[in-house]
């Protein structure tokens, strides 16, 4: 019994063969029989050996070779260490017990590789588990064919366990892994530091206390029997049903697609999609079967290939961004391409941009944006990481004084980035000047190891987003030069040691405002993925017979049920509403950036406070943009995230399968509701802005922007009341939303300013106020976009007609959901609410239903992009689900031992020849 491993030795094989110029000794300690296969490689062969085909679940291999070399081997720079293994779990068996296997050893560039073959063919890869461990023993000399490959097993049951020499252990690391046929295998690598070392014993317990991850390599899946392949779904085929759905609608989906994306964008997307589909690294067939380490490795490979394609095809920024979006998963370069470079562009001086932005664009440095901490997220002003100004040597000292000061959740930081824009509290003479960005190197550019006094790593697996290496970061009094502080708007004068501003200090929040604006833009597209899948599937899926249908009618498409329509079609309407609002939001952001650039040119200091919500009501566009981005980010990401879950559930049981394409996308999108400002906490900033705007109106200030305009209109008519025709007039419907948000704003102002209620007591009111403000902006921007389309006069009337119906459905469905607020505010009557709920909304569902499939087609999602069985454009739902389960699923390549009295977990598959 080996007490250290808890394994009972059954028998030991001692194999000793001898050939001219070489001897081979093999000791195998067995527990249960199995046979490993060996990786294939094709460099120059240097010898062969025959090995017995009976090995063990847990085995120690001891190989030794004389140091004398034949003349053909004298060019080797140093003897090579032979690697071998401890197999701690059973592996699938690919050889018969009686199979004689030949191992061919090859050498290239001081790397030794093994290739095995037998009477049943070549062995391509090492079969092992994540518990596999490797070490080196002995030296490689000239080898020849062994003489006696079938020695009898010995009755000796003793084993020799000694300490492995440390000079050998140090030469093999987790880097000693190589790729084989797209899967991970062990790399036979290592050189001894002493050419005279000859090992006779091996310690199988102490080497590599943490295991090297090895992915199990499976034999080829048994093909689906022909009789199964010939089966078809019962009833009307899916492709026939979707063809009929499209024939029932007069909406020109291609023209609508051009309206949404522009023809140039569509052509660019189609061209890049075709290119990516032709690249093996972007194959999605195994997306849903991989573990986190393999997914991250694959994501990194894809990111690198994207950069090579960008260079190869001379892609523009828009082309590259399109390619990134089409891949459809967060990648390790994600924060480098967005937050890191955007911050350098927006907040760096020309000198700093030359120093960091230029190499960042060339991927000579890889960066991230490190703001969120273990102890603080939404409260940016509460960040604990400090940057203390050192007047004596004109440097800053970055320090993490507490565990909660650890930077946390930082995308691209865990294993990828070597630079970071770090938000830290600027400290000068003991006084804090607020969160300030610093560009800091965190890893060596050659070894990629962390720099001294910097601790950085990955935070571990998450609910989703596992292709991104979100990381942690701590500093232990790390000094950085004066230039590290991004100084476009704020700076420290090295001569006077004084802090100064070159504009509004709140502009350091500009990066977050940009990100929130893009989140609004993306929300419509994200939701459209789920709606596309759910709509197509529910149009194909048939369940039950309509009780009012004629006898023999057959089962009803699920999408015909109003209980399904009321869940999916309002979300379909929301995709267009969010899309048009996102475009308006980005235009507002661009306009604000122009004004910032004009104001920054003067370098005039501002009297504003540090936060963007500390506004000059009615005159400060940044404040309006900040409040709008907070409100819309909160609502749009909530609609998209919750909508994806609604779509998944609308797909029934199959929606729970990864093959639906909704669940994995939902888990990756879900953090959007939290990062860049928690959706609940952001409402406080929106409320603060609206309260200040209300006070401005109450003082009699003239309205100079949209917010103060609707507040002024409400204030002047509040005693008179309103009479909006929310059912018959689109303009009145929007006005009702404006009236409601104005009512809630002045109610909050009364509670806070007149009744002096505590801020915390009003947080629920503020959340409802923020939500109402965002809903008003969405319905207004949606209607404005449709009016602009109608005014242009170039669009098919059918498109204009269906977009108006979608607008009304979204607005009235929202009104119905928030009925109490509309009624209490006086924006509409009880009768109008009842009419909207029981008549108008249901009629709109009936009118939009025939166009549902063509409307989702207009989003232009390629099947490769959706990666969904349920959302296939051709309707072959069941065929694709079965193919993925039967042909692509690696778990079907494993046979288990189900009996609890046997500790074998997996055993050999005996394939039928029938």
TrEMBL record:
Pathways involved: Lipid metabolism; peroxisomal fatty acid beta-oxidation
Ranges where the Acyl-CoA oxidase/dehydrogenase middle domain occurs: 368-478
Subcellular location: Peroxisome
Matches recorded under Pfam families: ACOX (PF01756), ACOX_C_alpha1 (PF22924), Acyl-CoA_dh_M (PF02770), Acyl-CoA_ox_N (PF14749)
Main location as per UniProt: other
Span of domain Acyl-CoA oxidase C-terminal: 731-897
One GO location term (cellular component): peroxisome
Catalytic activity as recorded in UniProt: a 2,3-saturated acyl-CoA + O2 = a (2E)-enoyl-CoA + H2O2
Disordered, as annotated region: 139-167
One GO-annotated biological process of the protein: lipid homeostasis
Keywords: FAD, Fatty acid metabolism, Flavoprotein, Lipid metabolism, Oxidoreductase, Peroxisome
Similarity comment text for this entry: Belongs to the acyl-CoA oxidase family.
Entry protein name: acyl-CoA oxidase
Species annotation: Leptosphaeria maculans (strain JN3 / isolate v23.1.3 / race Av1-4-5-6-7-8)
């Amino acid at each position: 019994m080996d007490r250290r491993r808890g394994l009972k030795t059954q028998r030991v094989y001692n194999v000793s063969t001898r050939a001219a110029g070489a001897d081979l000794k093999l000791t195998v300690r067995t527990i249960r029989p199995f046979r490993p296969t060996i990786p294939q490689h094709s460099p120059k062969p240097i010898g062969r050996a025959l090995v017995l085909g009976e090995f063990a679940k847990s085995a120690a291999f001891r190989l030794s070779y004389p140091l004398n070399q034949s003349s053909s081997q004298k060019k080797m720079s140093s003897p090579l260490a032979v690697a071998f293994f401890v197999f701690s779990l059973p592996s699938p068996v690919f050889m018969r017990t009686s199979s004689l296997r030949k191992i061919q050893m090859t050498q290239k560039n001081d790397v030794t590789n093994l290739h095995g073959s037998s009477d049943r063919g070549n062995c391509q890869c090492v079969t092992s588990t994540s518990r596999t461990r490797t070490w080196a023993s002995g030296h490689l000399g000239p080898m020849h064919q062994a003489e006696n490959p079938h020695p009898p097993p010995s009755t000796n049951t003793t084993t020799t366990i000694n300490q492995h020499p440390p000079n050998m252990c140090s030469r093999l690391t987790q880097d000693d892994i190589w790729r084989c046929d797209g899967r991970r295998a062990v790399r036979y690598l290592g050189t001894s530091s002493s050419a005279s070392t000859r090992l006779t014993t091996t310690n199988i317990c102490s080497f590599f206390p943490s295991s090297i991850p090895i992915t199990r390599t499976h034999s080829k899946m048994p093909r689906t029997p022909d009789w199964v392949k010939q089966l078809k779904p019962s009833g009307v085929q899916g492709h026939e049903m979707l063809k009929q759905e499209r024939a029932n609608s007069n909406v020109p989906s291609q023209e609508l697609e051009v309206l949404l994306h522009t023809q140039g964008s569509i052509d660019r997307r189609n061209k890049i999609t075709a290119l990516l589909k032709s690249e093996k690294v972007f194959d999605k067939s195994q997306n849903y079967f991989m573990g986190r380490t393999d997914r991250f490795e694959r994501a990194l490979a894809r990111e690198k290939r994207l950069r090579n394609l960008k260079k190869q095809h001379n892609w523009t920024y828009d082309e590259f961004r399109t390619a990134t979006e089409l891949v459809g998963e967060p990648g390790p370069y994600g924060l480098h391409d967005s937050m890191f470079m955007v911050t350098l562009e927006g907040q760096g001086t020309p000198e700093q941009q030359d120093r960091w932005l230029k190499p960042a664009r060339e991927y000579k440095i890889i960066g991230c944006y490190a703001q969120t901490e273990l102890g603080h997220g939404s409260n940016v002003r509460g960040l604990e990481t400090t940057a203390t100004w050192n007047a004596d040597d004109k440097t800053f000292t970055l320090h993490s004084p507490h565990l909660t000061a650890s930077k946390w959740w930082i995308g691209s930081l865990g294993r990828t980035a070597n630079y970071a824009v770090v938000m830290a509290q600027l400290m000068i003479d003991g006084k804090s000047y607020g969160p300030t960005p610093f560009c800091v190197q965190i890893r060596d550019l050659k070894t990629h190891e962390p720099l001294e006094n910097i601790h950085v790593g990955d935070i571990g697996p998450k609910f989703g987003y596992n292709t991104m290496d979100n990381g942690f970061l701590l500093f232990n009094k790390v000094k950085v030069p004066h230039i590290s502080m991004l100084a476009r708007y704020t700076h420290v004068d090295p001569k006077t040691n004084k802090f100064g501003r070159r504009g509004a200090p709140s502009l350091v929040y500009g990066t977050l405002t940009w990100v929130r604006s893009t989140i609004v833009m993306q929300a419509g597209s994200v939701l459209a993925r789920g709606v596309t899948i759910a709509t197509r599937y529910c149009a194909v899926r048939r369940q039950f017979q309509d009780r009012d249908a004629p006898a023999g009618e057959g089962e009803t498409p699920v999408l015909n049920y109003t209980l399904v329509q009321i869940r999916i079609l309002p979300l379909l309407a929301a995709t267009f509403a969010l899309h048009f609002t996102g475009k308006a939001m980005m235009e507002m952001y661009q306009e604000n950036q122009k004004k910032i650039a004009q104001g920054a040119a003067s370098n005039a200091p501002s009297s504003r406070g540090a936060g963007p919500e500390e506004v000059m009501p009615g005159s400060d566009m940044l404040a309006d943009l900040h409040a709008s981005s907070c409100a819309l980010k909160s609502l749009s990401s909530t609609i998209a995230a919750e909508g994806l879950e609604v779509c998944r559930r609308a797909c029934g049981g199959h929606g729970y399968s990864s093959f639906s394409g909704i669940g994995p996308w939902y888990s990756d999108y879900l953090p959007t509701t939290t990062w860049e400002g928690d959706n609940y906490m952001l409402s406080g900033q929106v409320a603060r802005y609206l309260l200040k705007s209300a006070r401005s109106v109450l003082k009699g200030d003239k309205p100079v922007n949209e917010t103060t305009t609707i507040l002024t209109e409400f204030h002047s008519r509040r005693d008179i009341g309103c009479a909006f025709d929310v059912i018959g007039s689109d303009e009145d419907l929007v006005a009702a939303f404006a009236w409601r948000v104005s009512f809630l704003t002045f109610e909050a102002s009364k509670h806070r300013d007149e009744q002096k209620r505590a801020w915390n007591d009003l947080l629920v009111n503020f959340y409802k106020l923020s939500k109402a403000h965002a809903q008003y902006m969405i319905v207004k921007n949606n209607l404005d976009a449709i009016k602009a389309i109608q005014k242009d006069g170039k669009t098919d009337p059918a498109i204009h007609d269906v977009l108006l119906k979608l607008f009304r459905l979204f607005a009235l469905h929202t009104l119905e959901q928030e009925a109490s607020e509309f009624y209490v505010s006086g924006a509409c009557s009880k009768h109008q609410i009842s009419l909207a709920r029981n008549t108008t909304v249901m009629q709109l569902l009936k009118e939009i239903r025939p166009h549902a499939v063509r409307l989702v087609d207009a989003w232009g999602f390629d099947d490769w992009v959706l990666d969904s069985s349920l959302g296939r454009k051709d309707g072959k739902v069941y065929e694709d689900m079965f193919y993925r389960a039967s042909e692509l699923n690696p778990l079907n390549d494993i046979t288990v031992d189900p009996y609890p009295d046997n500790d074998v977990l997996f055993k050999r598959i005996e394939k039928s020849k029938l």
